[in-house]
Amino acid sequence: MPPTATPQSMTGYATGSQDTSLGRVTVEFKSVNSRFLDLSFRIPDDLRAVEGPLRELLSARVKRGKVDCRVSLLRASESARLGEPDAALLEELARASHAVRQALPDAQAFTVAEALRWPGVLREDSDATETAAGTVLPLAAQVIEEFQAARSREGVRTADVVLAAIDRVQAIVDDLLGKLPQLLAAQQQRLERRLSEALAGAGSALAPEETGARVRQEITAHGLRADVAEELARLGTHVTEVRRALRAGGPVGKRLDFLAQELNREANTLGSKAVAIELTNASIELKLLIEQVREQAQNLE
User: Fold this and answer.
1) Are 37 and 67 in contact (CB under 8 A)?
2) For the whole model, what pTM was predicted?
3) What CA–CA distance (Å, rounded) separates 258 from 256?
């Protein structure tokens, strides 16, 4: 059954550019893992008005991850020549520079380039600026499609890794369920032999019938403590739930992280109740596989 929504990785990158009369506008999205949705923006002052709509666009499409949005404007050379300096602002800068140098004689004066880069010094064509700003959102809408596609491709690869680990977990559980009766029977035989030898060696005053009953009582109690069928059943249930979550798709990272904790809990109990080397080795291998699941889950949205 194919997933209804592809699991999304929290890692992705996409960029796109478009030429305008003011220069080339570029929108870039890149993201890494985060527990929550964390958006940051780097936008030129002339285009700062688009930050709010960009935030809404990303929030509607992305649920988790640290997303960096960068909007840049590479101005056309002819646009730079057409800019007209604001004489009044230049005079204010000159007065401020003079006051600073009087207070701090070693301070450097403004260079021409620094003065021209000061916000508002060059008067831009307002129509050109509005055109450039109006380009950002349609361009961002195109870029976010590629961004989400990249996250989906990475999400599919991550889900495949999780499924491979989960398949191995299920194989170990199935193998142990098949061996469990023999493992418990062998352990009971060893325990019965040791208890009988210990009672005989201690010169028990109990009658043989009572000795046998006491041995059987201890074996039964030990068998109840050592039976791991319940833990294996719960491991199988959690495996089924992991597969179901991945088939459903969508934001599954937190769900998988929780299931990995539950799987690890059962694997630890299995190890603590192990009565044979096969169970101990299986517990160790299960915990290694579950850690792989947990690590990969942290990459998914």
Assistant:
1) yes
2) 0.68
3) 5
Instruction: Please give the biggest Cα pair distance in the chain.
Output: 115
Pairing of strands 65-75, 37-42: parallel
Distance CA 131, CA 64 (A): 32
- DSSP annotation string for 47-82: GGGGHHHHHHHHHHH--SEEEEEEEEEEE-HHHHHH
CA distances from 186 to 5, 270, 299 (A): 48, 18, 44
The H or E element containing residue 92 is helix 87-103
Q: Could you report the per-residue pLDDT of 162-184, keeping only the tens digit for each?
A: 999 999 999 999 998 888 777 76
DSSP symbol at 228: -
Answer yes or no: are the C-beta atoms of 130 and 46 closer than 8 Å.
Answer: no
**Which tokens sit at 282?**
């299986």
Rg over alpha carbons for the chain, rounded to the nearest Å, is 34
Tokens representing residue 148 in the block: 């989400």
Pairwise CA distance, residues 8 & 159, whole Å: 9
Query: In whole angstroms, what separates CA 208 from the centre of its chain?
Result: 64
